[in-house]
Design goal:
Residues 1-23 form the signal peptide. Keywords: Signal. The chain is mainly α. The protein has 2 domains: 23-210 and 262-291, no CATH class; 336-412, no CATH class. The protein has 18 helices and 7 strands. Helix 8 packs antiparallel against helix 9. The longest helix is centred in the first third of the chain and has 25 residues, at 54-78.
């Protein structure tokens, strides 16, 4: 009887420990095996059984984030993205992992829009999962160097360690295999912010009417194109032929530059893009609220001033304070409460209301924006953003070191 009791107790302990272990690394099992679709299904089932499991919820968001790029890459490969020419300059070991589809589908402008729409939908799903993470003590360690993603639609997912094995050295490959990040609650907001940032760009692409550019220049990027100008697909389209003065190819490139002006196809999407940018700013503020309350130092992706972090980059309190000031100022610009300084006319006069660019959209012409005339409808009298002040620029330069600010901004989100 005693043996039976001990066996039962041991079995229950093992069962409970197995359930606990499987809940935490469940996402990693699918991420490191490259089975993202199966992982999404499994983690949704896990959350149906245990809705409070925010580690599984974060893992689901990570899987959905990578799925968005798998679907994007797979579609581009299926429609014959011309990778052989685009990646001709890469080392041969890397060219092997970005092959061009030998029998691609013919792509139309409607197909391009659907590809972008699917990408946006995937990112929205990931953002919703990540934004639903509430547990301030959530922790999910992941071996990120071993995460496998099929970015090029070949059916063969690869990881960072594999790539380093092709072009790096043995030590780099071993380091990638052991590289672990202990993701926490703040990181959920960090990744949700990136989802919103990418969604904003996707909405802008879908807002504009790019059909003329597609009809005239898409043959440069895809092997088979549904265009009213089939003659464009005849002759050499490889950029290497520019060395021999390929006149048709040069004219195609000039046409691509010339066509960078877009009427709006779905103007309401500009407001959706603005909403994503505003959500990104909120995410960026929220993540630091959680980062600054952490007292551990466990494989941090972005450390607070009292932590080290996996990248071993020291984050000072001055850096945090300056970055939060940048975020506050960004929020005021997005809300239209502060204006971007106008680059023509008298200094210190009118400014551009960036919010109205999204809420009152017009034809988009980057060249006229550089010239200034496209900004005219959005000029107002008002408070100019601190980003234009020598004090703010000096503070950013002193804290981050000029160009290094953009690297840190990419990391900080």
């Amino acid at each position: 009887m005693r043996r039976l009791t001990i066996f039962a107790a041991t079995f229950c302990t093992l069962l409970l420990s197995t359930q606990w272990v499987s809940a935490a690394p469940l996402a990693e099992q699918y991420l490191t095996s490259g089975q993202l679709t199966a992982g999404e299904t499994s983690l949704k089932a896990q959350l149906a059984k245990s809705p409070e499991d925010d580690a599984a919820r974060f893992g689901l968001g990570v899987i959905q984030f990578f799925q968005s790029f798998e679907h994007l890459g797979g579609s581009l490969h299926e429609y014959g993205l011309r990778t052989e020419g685009a990646f001709r300059g890469l080392p041969e070991p890397l060219r092997d992992v970005v092959p061009q589809d030998p029998d691609p589908k013919t792509i139309s402008y409607a197909d391009v829009r659907q590809i972008v729409q699917t990408w946006v939908n995937d990112l929205k799903a990931a953002e919703q999962s990540l934004s639903a993470v509430k547990d301030p003590n959530m922790k999910l360690p992941l071996k990120v160097g071993k995460i496998k993603v099929d970015l090029f639609g070949t059916g063969k997912p690869i990881d960072a360690a594999f790539l380093l094995g092709r072009v790096g050295n043995v030590k780099q490959q071993e380091a990638a295999q052991k590289f672990v990040i202990g993701f926490d609650r703040g990181d959920a907001s960090w990744l949700a912010g990136y989802c919103n940032f990418l969604c904003a760009w996707g909405e802008v692409i879908l807002a504009i009417d790019g059909e003329e550019m597609f009809n005239c220049t898409s043959h440069l990027f895809f092997e088979k194109v549904d265009t009213p100008y089939p003659f464009l697909q005849e002759g050499s389209r490889n950029f290497d032929s520019l060395r021999r003065f390929n006149r048709p190819l040069i004219s195609d490139i000039l046409a691509f530059i010339h066509l960078w002006r877009f009427e709006l196809k779905e103007p309401k999407r500009m407001q959706a893009a603005l909403a994503h940018l505003e959500a990104m700013q909120v995410n960026a503020k929220t993540m630091w609220k959680y980062y600054l309350t952490e007292t551990d130092d466990d494989h941090e992706w972005i450390p607070n001033p009292n932590q080290t972090g996996v990248l071993e980059i020291k984050v000072s309190q001055e850096m945090v304070d300056t970055w939060l000031a940048v975020l506050d100022e960004t929020g005021l610009v997005l809300k239209g409460k502060k204006l971007i300084p106008f680059w023509r006319g008298k200094s210190g006069g009118q400014g551009v209301n960036l919010r109205r660019v999204f809420t009152e959209p017009r034809k988009i012409d980057p060249f006229l924006w550089v010239q200034g005339t496209a900004a005219a409808p959005y000029l107002e009298e008002g408070t100019i953003t601190e980003f234009a002040s020598p004090e703010m620029l000096g503070r950013i330069n002193n804290t981050f070191g000029g160009v290094r600010f953009f690297t840190m901004a990419f990391w900080f989100n």
